Amino acid sequence: MTEKFTDYFEETVGKFVDGKINCEGRLAVIGAGLPPELIYCFDSSPLWILSGTPAEARECDTVPKDADDLSRSVFGMLKSGRCEPEKFRAAVILISDDNSRKLACELKEKCKVITVDMPAMYQAYDMNGYWQKSLSFMYEELKKVCGIKRGSVKGAVSFMNSVRKQVKKLVSLSRKHPDIIGFETVMTVVNSLYCTDNKEEWLERLTALNEYLAASEEKKIKRNIPGIILAGSPVYYPNHKILRLLKETDIRLLSCIDPVMQPYFDDEMKTRKTDYAEFYSVIRNSIGNIVLSGYLETDYAITKLKEEIEKTKPDGVIFHVIRGRKTEDADSVLFEKLCENKGISYFKIETDYQENDIEQLRLRIEAFREILV
């Protein structure tokens, strides 16, 4: 019965991944970490490009050899033929490393490119001011390209408040009904918002799913299934290899800490009187998420892990790193130390988008499961 409500989200993701993408006149957003409110106020159905497919990562030969598969897949997607950058209204690119800089240079030949620089370090001098300046530049450039109506920021904030309210409700219900809907499905639901071109229908479907789950009888978990928190590199469809292995090895996913998921777990924002006030409120609210996208010298991600440990009482933590993503890899040391202090089993996995290491990963996860039980 649950499939009646969840099929829509899986199909939305599937169509985006497998089919040709409608790029005509759309605002493309490349990279996770930008506040959604400042995108939705310019385009009600932006094209979020957070990842390509494993095949697109494998076949792309225009990026540096040491590029991680996430970056490689984005390059491959934009060159695959199913995405036509020359039809973008504009492309907003989050500049976080040399790969994103090269992508920005290549795209400038095909469309208007607006770059948003990430601060070098979280605790650097006046990081808030730097981030505000970067987003203010993006905002002013998008106003020139897209135009903006009065009240658009307030409308985008209102929509995201509704999204956060429903996502949090879904997370709560998934913990109440883990045998009906797992956290993996929660992640698919959130991922699908990045894939849809009709966000209002998406929100209606999520609300209907929550109403169904709220009316369902609570089921007791009969089996002793270990539960874990997943952290590290972003887990974005179709790179669900780790999620698939967790399910196959009978490990329950309790929560996930990454820059793709986190914006939807933030507190709802208070509505301000003017778009100007809303704009700066959004910026202040987004600071933590940009940190979660890969910055050292911060305790933000650690604070989030502490919160999730208190909420979910996990048996273990798995830190997942996409090979080559050095900033997230460095954070693993902080996570391991926290888990050691809390007496929680910790396990680090390094992988890529391909299936070559699937059996080796399965054996390692099965061995970790034995430790948990």
Task: Present the secondary structure layout.
Blueprint: H1 3-18, E1 27-30, H2 37-40, E2 47-49, H3 54-59, H4 69-79, E3 90-95, H5 98-107, E4 113-117, H6 127-146, H7 152-176, H8 183-193, H9 199-215, E5 227-232, H10 241-248, E6 252-257, H11 275-292, H12 300-312, E7 316-322, H13 326-342, E8 345-351, H14 358-372
Parallel strand pairs: 1-2, 1-3, 3-4, 5-6, 5-7, 7-8
Helix pairs in contact: 1-8, 1-9, 6-11, 7-9, 7-11
* Morphology: globular
Q: Based on the coordinates given, report the CATH architecture of the domain at 23-148.
A: 3-Layer(aba) Sandwich
- For the residues shown, what is the average pLDDT? 84
User: Into which percent range does the helicity of residues fall?
Assistant: 40-55%
Category by helix and strand content: alpha/beta
**Contiguous uncertain segments of 5+ residues:** 292-297
Count of alpha and pi helical runs? 14
Biggest beta sheet summary: 4 strands, parallel
CATH topology of the domain at 23-148: Rossmann fold
Total count of strands: 8
Query: What order do the strands of the largest sheet run in, or round the barrel if closed?
Result: 2-1-3-4
CATH class call of the domain at 23-148 = Alpha Beta
Strand composition percent:
5-15%
State the separation between the terminal residues, measured CA to CA.
31 Å
Helix-strand pattern: HEHEHHEHEHHHHEHEHHEHEH
Radius of gyration: 20 Å
